[in-house]
């Protein structure tokens, strides 16, 4: 049974890079181009992990994170923030909002896949 991971990033090329790495490991991928678009795609299906950027138009990653945590089906879905933001204050804001992990771009795909394996819900 393949696990489903949602990627939320306003950069199509970044979504593609992450998507290719995940699909290569057998994961199913749902893509969102910003927080609002991603929320509209969370329709009750099981999502084992969400990977989200922080800086996006329409709805940023931290706001998206807070919104996801309000949804009964996704309250416990682990969220990995994948972002260019490396400031401690941003990381703390992310953790306070419910992010389980923080990875700074550019990243190595093996780093990402290792984090994904650790974070994915069973």
UniProtKB/TrEMBL annotation:
<feature type="modified residue" description="4-aspartylphosphate">
    <location>
        <position position="53"/>
    </location>
</feature>
<dbReference type="InterPro" id="IPR011006">
    <property type="entry name" value="CheY-like_superfamily"/>
</dbReference>
<dbReference type="GO" id="GO:0000160">
    <property type="term" value="P:phosphorelay signal transduction system"/>
</dbReference>
<dbReference type="InterPro" id="IPR001789">
    <property type="entry name" value="Sig_transdc_resp-reg_receiver"/>
</dbReference>
<dbReference type="InterPro" id="IPR050595">
    <property type="entry name" value="Bact_response_regulator"/>
</dbReference>
<protein>
    <submittedName>
        <fullName>Two-component system response regulator</fullName>
    </submittedName>
</protein>
<dbReference type="Pfam" id="PF00072">
    <property type="entry name" value="Response_reg"/>
</dbReference>
<keyword id="KW-0597">Phosphoprotein</keyword>
<feature type="domain" description="Response regulatory">
    <location>
        <begin position="4"/>
        <end position="120"/>
    </location>
</feature>
């Amino acid at each position: 049974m393949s696990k489903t991971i949602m990627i939320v990033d306003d950069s199509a090329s970044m979504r593609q890079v992450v998507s290719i790495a995940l699909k290569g490991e057998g994961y199913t991928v749902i893509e969102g181009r910003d927080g609002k678009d991603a929320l509209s795609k969370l329709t009750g299906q099981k999502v084992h992990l969400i990977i989200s950027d922080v800086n996006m138009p329409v709805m940023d990653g931290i706001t998206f994170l807070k919104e996801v945590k309000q949804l009964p089906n996704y309250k416990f879905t682990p969220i990995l923030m994948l972002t260019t933001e490396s400031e401690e204050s941003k990381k703390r804001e992310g953790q306070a909002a419910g992010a389980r992990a923080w990875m700074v771009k550019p990243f190595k795909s093996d780093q990402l896949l290792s984090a994904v394996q650790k974070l994915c819900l069973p």
